[in-house]
């Protein structure tokens, strides 16, 4: 069928509706970029991948001639498409509101989301101890314990200052001695050569000793449990752990938008490979990116040192981009619907992505 000829699509009702391709009567220029396994070059320099195979099937159905041109990153790909340099662009282009303002998109041909890559290398115990010591929860608990100790010391001074020479003298001397005794009692470091003599003071001392023993035991157990859990499970197990670690992302990617919306600090890298190298060498603790691309790259180049967590978050879709107002958008939508419902499409996804596509 020639490029300008009317095509047809079969609806469930059995009625054949005309679909006007409205493609230019010339060779189409299709922009793309390296985004394994959706768009990549084989050993012969030929483009292959999930998105490339999808486009070849679309072109075959609509009898379109085309050639591929490559861009270095998704930002330049979107910009060139918006200027009209490309008739359309296909790779692993996430449909976002910001990009939708610049170009038009087809409906998604693949639905996915963001994933998190973490290192398999063992976590430094001393580093985790330091991280725990400066965490908000630890500092909050330590401040509460110190505050109670000061309060107990003050009350002991009030009860004992007129009846016990160990806590007598001036206010500064008496308070200093009672606070020091409170700290000794809390840590069970008292030598026992001095202590409260009044009944209220001794009652308070007994209560404080019992409470401090229980409190410190629970506090120690909680810290030990947290350190053990981190050693066994790792620093990051879901997106909820990202605020507590060093996060990396590809500059200009959709993952940047998610991290910024969540107000998460992040280190930006030019390419996915650069980010995974930083993760592998311990410069960052987690790397956030499109999960299928992340899984592919980690499996191909960092299979022993990096793993991608199972949880998927911030759902997104990949679509074909085209200049605003392109007349052939409807034809592409229909072709995508038809192709992605075929068994051949499922086999393509399985071939590139395995069982978890």
TrEMBL record:
Keyword Transmembrane included in the entry's annotation: yes
Annotated spans, Disordered: 1-20
Annotated ranges, domain Solute-binding protein family 3/N-terminal: 27-356
GO terms assigned for molecular function: ligand-gated monoatomic ion channel activity
Membrane-spanning intervals of the chain: 136-159, 203-227
Keywords: Glycoprotein, Ion channel, Ion transport, Membrane, Receptor, Transmembrane, Transmembrane helix, Transport
Location of this chain's protein in the cell: Membrane
Keyword Transmembrane helix: yes
InterPro entries: Ionotropic_Glu_rcpt (IPR015683), Iontro_rcpt_C (IPR001320), Solute-binding_3/MltF_N (IPR001638)
Protein's UniProt name: Transporter substrate-binding domain-containing protein
Source organism: Rhizobium setariae
């Amino acid at each position: 069928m020639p490029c300008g000829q009317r095509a047809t699509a079969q609806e469930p009702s059995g009625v054949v509706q005309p679909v006007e391709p409205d493609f230019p009567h010339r060779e189409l220029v299709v922009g793309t970029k390296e985004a394994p396994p959706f768009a990549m070059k084989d050993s012969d320099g030929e483009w292959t991948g999930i998105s490339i195979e999808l486009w070849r099937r679309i072109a075959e159905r609509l009898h379109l001639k085309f050639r591929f041109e490559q861009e270095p990153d998704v930002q330049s790909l979107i910009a060139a498409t918006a200027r009209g340099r490309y008739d359309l662009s296909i790779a692993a282009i996430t449909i976002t509101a910001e990009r939708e303002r610049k170009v038009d998109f087809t409906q998604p041909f693949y639905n996915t989301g963001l994933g998190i890559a973490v290192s398999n290398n063992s976590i430094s115990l001393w580093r985790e101890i330091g991280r725990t010591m400066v965490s908000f929860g630890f500092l909050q608990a330590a401040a509460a314990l110190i505050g109670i100790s000061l309060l107990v010391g003050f009350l002991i001074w009030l009860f004992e200052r007129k009846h016990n020479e160990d806590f007598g003298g001036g206010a500064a001397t008496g308070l200093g001695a009672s606070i020091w005794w409170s700290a000794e009692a809390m840590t069970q470091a008292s030598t026992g050569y001095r202590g409260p003599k009044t009944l209220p003071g001794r009652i308070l001392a007994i209560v404080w000793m019992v409470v401090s023993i229980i409190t410190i035991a629970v506090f120690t157990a909680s810290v030990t449990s947290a350190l053990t859990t981190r050693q066994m499970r790792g620093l990051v197990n879901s997106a909820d752990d990202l605020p507590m670690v060093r996060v990396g992302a590809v500059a200009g990617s959709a993952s940047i938008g998610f991290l910024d919306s969540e107000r998460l600090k992040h280190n930006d890298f030019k390419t996915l490979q650069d980010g995974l190298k930083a993760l592998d060498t311990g410069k960052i603790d987690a790397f956030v990116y499109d999960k299928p691309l992340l899984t592919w790259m980690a499996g191909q180049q960092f299979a022993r040192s990096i793993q991608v967590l199972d949880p998927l978050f911030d759902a997104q879709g990949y679509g074909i981009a085209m200049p605003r107002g392109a007349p052939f958008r409807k034809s592409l939508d229909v072709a995508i619907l038809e192709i992605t419902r075929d068994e051949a499409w499922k086999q393509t996804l399985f071939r590139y992505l395995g069982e978890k596509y």
